[in-house]
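>> received
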Amino acid sequence: MCKEIFTNRPDFRVNTFISEMVAEFRQSAQQKSSSSSLVSKPGKVPCDVCTETKLKALKSCLVCLTSYCETHLEPHLTKPGLKRHQLIDPVENLEDWICTKHDKPLELFCKTDQTCVCTLCPLLDHKTHEFVPLIEEYEKKRQSWEIQKLKSSR
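>> returned
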């Protein structure tokens, strides 16, 4: 690089400055990969707001139809208007959580028809049916799935 011409082949040595820089770079790259548990992986729901590296979503909002990482979820936990939004465990196809008839979030479970419904459905289409909050039914089903998974792994 110095453009100097040598008559005899010089005795090359390791450039310790560059060698140390490479070692530091490798170490920081390893630390980044070990802290990447926050980064969304295949099969995990990514944050819809993150622009660079998509972080793993903690919650999905049925009103905004958006999934949020810890940082971007913060306004939903602190702002009065957003606190009323329906948050659920992160899901990929949020459109599937909206009533196709009334364009409202699915918040109830119709025990009679064994289907998810919005708050207008009981008033219009399922008048005499029995309902529970969707979150309640979801938690009950999730617990039974976990119990089945434990039994099958024994």
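>> The CA atoms of residues 14 and 131 lie 74 Å apart.
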